[in-house]
Amino acid sequence: MPVPLPDDASVLLQPPDADEVACVARGVISAVAPEGGLTGLQQTLVAAMFHSMTGHDVDPLALQAELAAKPYGAREFAEDMHRRNLAFRGRVVQMMVTVELVLNPLPPTVAGRVAEFAAELSVHDDLEDVLHGFADSGRRLAAIDFDRNGYLHDFDVHHLEHLHVGDGALTGPWTPVEDDPGLAARWSSLGDLTAGTLGRGVYDFYKTRGFAFPGAPGSAPPLLAQHDWVHILADYGTRVESEIEVFAFIARANDDLHAFSLLAMVVSLFETGALAAGAGLFEADRGHLSQPGMAVRFGDAQRRAALCTGSNDFMAADWFAVADKPVAVLRKELLLPPKSDEARTAGSVGPWDAEGISPFQLNAGRKLAAAEGREYTGS
């Protein structure tokens, strides 16, 4: 029998202290370590995420050595978490899934063990079914089910008014819309807004990179374009490493645990390459999460999102309704904290930093400026 969730009288809502953090870390390591022990990237991720999310440091190798002498099973861990609610337990399982996803190939024994821990914690996450298929059957099944069992599990084309797409244009969540002049004009009109507003930032963001506005030929799917507003709001560039930060931020900001599937998709695209493509535009490009400093940047993006007020589904926001607001005001309303000094030192950059734009995007932005007869004023 899984360990039941606590009632209102017994639930523990305070942040974990150092002892409980060590307990959680032991549980995570017990669940995700493959035969032979944690990989280097797993060690780095565990250390960085616990530091950013709890304020307490853990030593993954020291804990792993403890576990070799005294194993820690799923049932024992769940019993130690008996006063924690579904939100807390769900985030712990998401941490396990993050750290298992960087294994390539993902051993079925690890996927099964994480599923066992989730079950004992009374966390029924459809994503675990995906990972079983991923470990057993390969990439194609996983690529399909990330949408089916994750954030888009209840996708309905009739409930996407916030995308402002014309009737009948969308047939699926990641459908490109390249023949909707009204939609393209709406995005282009953001250029009329005052400098410093969110909308003007997004307009300049597109122009400096040579991106086509949604609704125009060659544009990104409107749903994927939702995350572009977050680049400006949360101050992240557009190289692949920054994309990982953005989706770590988006996933953690949303209290709906299904949102984590967006981050799982991005990790599978940009670290292991286990997914060949995703979100209607992204293509696999391996090894970016394992770059120096990325674990710190990843953890800090999650920290910042967790500290925002409320639950925020940034992929379902009607950004045009707040496009005329200054970015500084929106950050203040969200209580969005700045990046940590550690993340900046580790290489986290904003969209206007020279390192925050890829050479390909820079060249595309310059070509667009030349075609439009204007001076290029981007990064």
Summarize the structure.
With 379 residues, the protein is mainly alpha-helical.
Sheet having the most strands:
2 strands, antiparallel
Order of helices and strands: HHHHHHHHHHHHHEEHHHH
Please tally the helical runs, counting DSSP H or I stretches of 4 or more residues: 17
Strand order of the largest sheet: 1-2
How many strand segments? 2
**How much strand?**
under 5%
Unreliable segments (pLDDT under 50, ≥5 consecutive)? 135-144
Radius of gyration, in angstroms, nearest whole number: 21 Å
Task: Kindly name the structural category.
Answer: mainly alpha
Averaged pLDDT, please? Answer: 91
Structure explained in plain terms:
This protein is elongated. The protein has helices at 18-32, 40-54, 60-69, 74-80, 86-101, 108-120, 126-137, 139-148, 181-188, 198-209, 222-234, 240-253, 260-270, 294-307, 327-334, 341-345, 359-371; strands at 277-278, 282-283. It folds into two domains: 18-137; 158-371, no CATH class. Mean pLDDT is 91; it is low at 135-144. It has a two-stranded antiparallel sheet with strand order 1-2. Helices cover 52% and strands 1% of the residues.
Question: Secondary structure elements and their pairing?
Answer:
Elements lengths: L17 H15 L7 H15 L5 H10 L4 H7 L5 H16 L6 H13 L5 H12 L1 H10 L32 H8 L9 H12 L12 H13 L5 H14 L6 H11 L6 E2 L3 E2 L10 H14 L19 H8 L6 H5 L13 H13 L8
Antiparallel strand pairs: 1-2
Helix pairs in contact: 1-3, 1-5, 2-14, 4-6, 5-6, 5-13, 6-7, 7-8, 10-11, 10-17, 11-12, 12-13, 12-14
